[in-house]
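Reviewers asked in the last cycle whether our approach scales beyond single polypeptides. To address this, we selected a multi-component target totalling 1212 residues and predicted its structure end to end. The input consisted of the following lines:
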Amino acid sequence: MTVHQFQPERYYNTIGAHQPVLTLNSGDAVVTSTVDARGWGADGESAAERGNPMTGPFYVEGAMPGDTLEVIFESITSNREWGWTSNRLAPNVVDPEFAAQLPPSDIVRWTVDVRQGIAFPEQRAGKLANLQLPLRPFFGCFGVAPAKGQSISTATSGEYGGNMDYRGFTAGVRIYFPVFTEGALFHLGDGHALQGDGEIAGTGVEISMDVRFRVQLIKGKTIGWPRGQTDTHVFCVGNARPLDQALQHATTEMLALLREDYGLTVTEASLLLGQAVQYEVANVFNPAYSVVCKLPKSVIEML
Amino acid sequence: MTVHQFQPERYYNTIGAHQPVLTLNSGDAVVTSTVDARGWGADGESAAERGNPMTGPFYVEGAMPGDTLEVIFESITSNREWGWTSNRLAPNVVDPEFAAQLPPSDIVRWTVDVRQGIAFPEQRAGKLANLQLPLRPFFGCFGVAPAKGQSISTATSGEYGGNMDYRGFTAGVRIYFPVFTEGALFHLGDGHALQGDGEIAGTGVEISMDVRFRVQLIKGKTIGWPRGQTDTHVFCVGNARPLDQALQHATTEMLALLREDYGLTVTEASLLLGQAVQYEVANVFNPAYSVVCKLPKSVIEML
Amino acid sequence: MTVHQFQPERYYNTIGAHQPVLTLNSGDAVVTSTVDARGWGADGESAAERGNPMTGPFYVEGAMPGDTLEVIFESITSNREWGWTSNRLAPNVVDPEFAAQLPPSDIVRWTVDVRQGIAFPEQRAGKLANLQLPLRPFFGCFGVAPAKGQSISTATSGEYGGNMDYRGFTAGVRIYFPVFTEGALFHLGDGHALQGDGEIAGTGVEISMDVRFRVQLIKGKTIGWPRGQTDTHVFCVGNARPLDQALQHATTEMLALLREDYGLTVTEASLLLGQAVQYEVANVFNPAYSVVCKLPKSVIEML
Amino acid sequence: MTVHQFQPERYYNTIGAHQPVLTLNSGDAVVTSTVDARGWGADGESAAERGNPMTGPFYVEGAMPGDTLEVIFESITSNREWGWTSNRLAPNVVDPEFAAQLPPSDIVRWTVDVRQGIAFPEQRAGKLANLQLPLRPFFGCFGVAPAKGQSISTATSGEYGGNMDYRGFTAGVRIYFPVFTEGALFHLGDGHALQGDGEIAGTGVEISMDVRFRVQLIKGKTIGWPRGQTDTHVFCVGNARPLDQALQHATTEMLALLREDYGLTVTEASLLLGQAVQYEVANVFNPAYSVVCKLPKSVIEML
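The resulting structure, written as structure tokens, was:
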């Protein structure tokens, strides 16, 4: 169990079969950093091309298609004192008639006070003059190389993860990816200091991050979509448009989880999910939307 | 402020401009009961035609189009010891390829233990033998008569409310409806002892209810979609297909709320919602799906 | 077989169980007129409230739920020399980012020259100065009273017909509706002198009409959605949002047609439809979109 | 203007920045062949991995990002006497409740008689015993390398083309692609002997092809999505889910075409499209659906 220090030198704007930057063994941890969605780093300077540049990929020794890769973010910390957001809701999240009345959009800087654990728009004026929101740092975009040797833009997401922009992917959460390529090839980036559900302004509070993560290889376990667990819930992620289809993917994966990991029949899983399931709208902005299907562990413990 | 005791004698399977059963003044409360989604009452006998039969409508003195009607469910209590659910997920919430493999669906009885506050499938076998879920009683379908003299099936929903199947509509929540007709004409029914998000099996634990609710007329305040507040949140509901459009309606209504009630500009509301909004998938089964757009009161208090 | 002359005096903005204006026997024809979508009649004066006011309803002797009503428009003729359209695409038919740049919308008058069979914007300027489009008159909104005693706004559509805005509903086409109510209760209105696919500006060339139609009752034949036939095709209509669901309804109804009327198995129907089906996007503007699923009669004749 | 004979040796299951197999000058033609969607060639033997293996890519001298590549299929001819289709409609094109009743799906062989120009299921039995459908050969999947160095599965499509499965892409049609990469890198494959609208069984009559195509480079012309023209129409293609969004892309691109190529204002384009536009549902099966927005040249000639 090694802890690797890794200083990124180049970044990729696609997730795919790129040359690995480091080889990890199952159980290893990595301490590294990420630039923000526009490629601006800890010093505020441009270090990469805009569009969710990724740190990595990291090659996991022994990972083969059909395995599962567990990733745990042990810590996620903003490494500068400001972030930025859009100042306009995405036109696709309001009624089309209202979209036709939206003002032009711009980028706004936010102060990110890591010590106090809060963030707020830099310009303290108008109705938001006293707003301060708690930090809840997470990564918007990360995952493994997709199937068939594809390289896919970090704007979007799929079975392999990618730009899911789920505010629940905070430190401490265990996340599982299906492995599609030898070595899995884990990429990460697009840090958000905080964000609402759905990423409906098209951004979180975009920021560069210091991160420590650990990988664990689960040989011979095959899953279809990203899964995860927190202290209180297990969950599955579906990525697609429209929301209906993202929800279908996440729900179908949860059915698979209940059948494979807990031995439920489809009927038992239906009775359970119908009365106990929870959903989150992770993002409703990217080319693929993301929906999270959750079950409380308190319910699972009764099975 | 009168408390009316009302014993329903007939039920409607549409929400519309039906003959009112009672006239209320603003502030009045009503103690009454509802049958379940199939028309079965407290004694388990059929009292109405299946398809969400409604108690009411109640005429609110002075309510005119352009006003808002506030409804508070002061208590919602199952008045029998069993409910029922479907035992199969709705085919539209799973991947279509998987839908083609779903088993046939049937109705299953659940024990509803009001004293202990729990429910579970009557047949205690298999992996669910030890399952028991906490009661969280609410009404699936209620609202006011829609615009233009329409009478609309209680299967669906719209600006007027209707079959929203939102598990958050529990006792204590304040709910606001746009008034479209003289007297508002409030209907209610379709009690659920509990339900997961989305009503993904097509039912909650369907049950007959005793209810006490109060109405409050807000003259001259005009809203576009149902709104509400709990102790911790304000929220807006959008009803439409697909989920994307339901979310658009709910988000656009929340923008209207922030502009009208709190004086925010579109830009301020965008900055706020982008980083603080929350969503719930209320139902993803009915002809119109329902999405709830929420803001914590703790955030609103900073405005 | 009587030909009734009927001069409408009042109009309904919902389709529902209204008092019939005339009783027809199967085989009877009616000669009547309709006002336009805003209620303007042949003389250009307002005769009804805006929002697709309907002529009718007509009661068909002997029609009972479970029957099918055939309607043939024998002639449809604009009864004035001008119509109107919106001058802006509906925001929901363009990319949301582009919707945010759309100009404000307005109503524009078109000259409708029935003798020459053409129409064009009245203001002959700019790039459209020489535009003239062939007339193709049809009714945007018509149908029978919906199930359960509902009265539904003429803005939308469903199994009962309604505001389908399908440019294929021209004179000579035979159209079939499921009967939900005693007497069927046929309504019609919302004439268009012509229109593109999808009604993407939110209007056709809206105009008042003279019409002659005939009804034929088909006892004991039950269908699920509107169907029709032209000289060259049979077709089924699905009405819902999004387009995907409208297409699902239309396709499922076509499967039913092939199974019931021609005895095909699901597999045979799949082989056939997969390689021979045709679709039209009837409307992508109204609360329910409409998709038409078609098969050439030349193909059906091989069965 | 050279005519290149090219015999493919390897095939790609992604569209991307692969090593070019041949360099073409603008105006050059290529005579080559493609295997079918499962990789079966003219001799019926497996020559490539299943999943729309591509012939190419072809490098076009001088093509740079921001240019447009015109492709004309001069001839498309099945090079064997049989094809295959699925025998079951895709579960996503029927009502979800009906999907749950679909039979299992299988592959069925079709006789393809190039001389007579017809095709029919090999097994001549049941209601389809006399069916024969006219050949209308086209390519389901072709396009240029996508932006950002992506390599994307030939299952799907985007701005770069890909698996659009549009039955209108027959010989003689001129098709235009935005160039995203130096050399454009044109790929093609997935021949269909014929197909209905929407590819609703998930396949056309899948077959290997002989093809002759020509490329023409249009320097400095930038488009957003694939466009094309036939003898009678100009058209634009949008690829996305759901159909609504594919239609939005296609319509927005048609607006761009009318503004840039014909100088119309948004208002003029709206007046025109609203009353003259036509749509086709190209595919409603792949991960991205495809919708075609068309205008008759007879209308364009009036501008």
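Chain C touches chain D through 69 residues (CB under 8 Å). We regard this as preliminary and will revisit it once experimental data from Aim 1 are available.
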